[in-house]
Amino acid sequence: xNDVKLTSTLAFRLGTLGAVMTERFSARLAAHGLKPKxxxxxxxxxxxxxxSQLDIAKLMNVAPSLVVxxxxxxxxxxxxxxxxxxxxxxxxxxxxxxxxxxxxxxxAAAAAELDAELTDELGPGETEALRSVLGTLARRHGLPAD
Amino acid sequence: xNDVKLTSTLAFRLGTLGAVMTERFSARLAAHGLKPKxxxxxxxxxxxxxxSQLDIAKLMNVAPSLVVxxxxxxxxxxxxxxxxxxxxxxxxxxxxxxxxxxxxxxxAAAAAELDAELTDELGPGETEALRSVLGTLARRHGLPAD
DNA sequence: TCCTAATCGTTCAGTTCCTGAATTATATGG
DNA sequence: CCATATAATTCAGGAACTGAACGATTAGGA
Lengths: 146, 146
Description:
DNA-binding; 2 strands; two-stranded antiparallel ribbon; 6 helices; homodimer; globular; mainly alpha
């Protein structure tokens, strides 16, 4: 019988820490009328990886119908423009507006504050190690990277 | 204007990776009739930090009514025994059974498998660095540690 | 050229997970 | 003892998400 402690497992700790972080992130975004997934959508748009709503849904691992409501909200805030693709008129193309880019920068600033809070009592070496490994994992597992 | 990329932020990456991990964890637990929060409750019980349902709720940052249903399920599986505290008969004391301990070990094994999967392409140094920093963060931020 | 099948966005009903308010049982302190 | 506080429970409801159905558009044969 393998005798591993659940709490000292990477999966468990990433899960718990991740939940804490997205909750804090969510609290900050609320002031701007956004939820974490809105920020996720903005990220996808900025990356240019996908513009049609279906592609975005696949990239975000989310139902297409959810992208609709996320996009509705962002359009409402003027962060995103919806345009029919003239080549294939079934497709809706989402484009970041200037306000959208600003909003994304605001989200990034909020996240940076959380980072500072999180690594408060960490040595600079530890912080850099964490940043580096998380970057590697993000790349290896198909998550949005730089 | 601060020019941080949201995707390269620790908060964002921990959130995303954490979501991926708990989803995978959830998928494995499903085979045993459990959800991640059930595992969380088992962890709390094993730690001995809290036995009354209200204390458990506080520790888990969750509504007391949720603990009721989590405990219901675990009792159903024979993983937990509910006993009225004879000193204060309002309190329900939750105690891990042998089956509960076994179930917890099963969860830990599943998480360990996920760890292996996650760190597949990481060097042993990186893996150890990650484990160490996450341990530190868990301790600093009041999350369950060993 | 039609006609059928596929694709995209959208709507909407339903599921899941969780919270907060009421309820019951018990304890505690003037 | 009585008023008030506390523990567990039940239950209605909210937030977030999914999946099925639909309308509009496109594509690919015969």
